[in-house]
């Protein structure tokens, strides 16, 4: 049993914290948003007066914040100073690789331990305890965190040293973005060639074009009844989040001078999608933009 400070009780953080409580850990939460606090209390999670207060009592501090600046502000703004020496900081927000490494350096300089452990699997994965964790950090810190990550997730991969969990996350989501666009383009092209959606699905889902973007997140209604296309593209994984993750990918592409033309193009297309009506829609709804951008 660990004493855990869980900071950031939003869409992802609250169900993750709830699964830690179910696994028998002593959890104290904190979030500055009153509605998040009310929902956490209703779920049976005790709330501290501040993040620093929660951290002062904890063996492990988990952060699940919107973006990197929130993490660095919190680490610099008293969280690290409040914790007892040797506290393990698990940073699970999706942030830039260099922000994760900066957070790691701050934690170590303050006498603590730190891993980056971003997730994929969305709110449903968080609720069901089936998240995938991609971890960057030392072998010892990974081993210490593993029982907690196993209470919240199903697939946990140690990707290497600090920042490499975030590196794996950004690479995965770049693949996902490019493949979702490719599948959408194929359906629109098929429509214009007179191909039924179901026929194209039956071929591609069993052939060399097979990928999650068609078998699970099929962007047209019908072939996969549970895909967001069947509920007017209610997420799922919202366009705003995909645009955010591709912004982090672009940052990494530029910092490493990588020739990632498809990744760059996907970033542009999803930035435009999120700036239009796509921010709150599933990212597979980009098929509508593709269809409308060149009407017949
Ligand atoms: P969210 O906005 O619902 O929740 C974030 C919470 O952090 C908010 O309630 C906010 O008030 C709180 N917060 C901000 N600063 C804080 C501080 N200093 N102390 C305590 N709480 C603070 O976001 P979310 O959807 O839960 O996503 C969290 C992270 O997980 C993001 O980095 C996101 O990119 C990533 N992620 C989200 C999904 C998803 O499907 N929602 C999937 C994978 C990864």
TrEMBL record:
Alphabetic keyword roster: Branched-chain amino acid catabolism, NAD, Oxidoreductase
Domain 6-phosphogluconate dehydrogenase NADP-binding: 3-160
GO molecular function: 3-hydroxyisobutyrate dehydrogenase activity
Catalysed reaction equations from the record: 3-hydroxy-2-methylpropanoate + NAD(+) = 2-methyl-3-oxopropanoate + NADH + H(+)
3-hydroxyisobutyrate dehydrogenase-like NAD-binding domain sequence ranges: 163-287
EC class: oxidoreductase
Similarity comment: Belongs to the HIBADH-related family.
Descriptive protein name: 3-hydroxyisobutyrate dehydrogenase
Protein source organism: Microbacterium galbinum
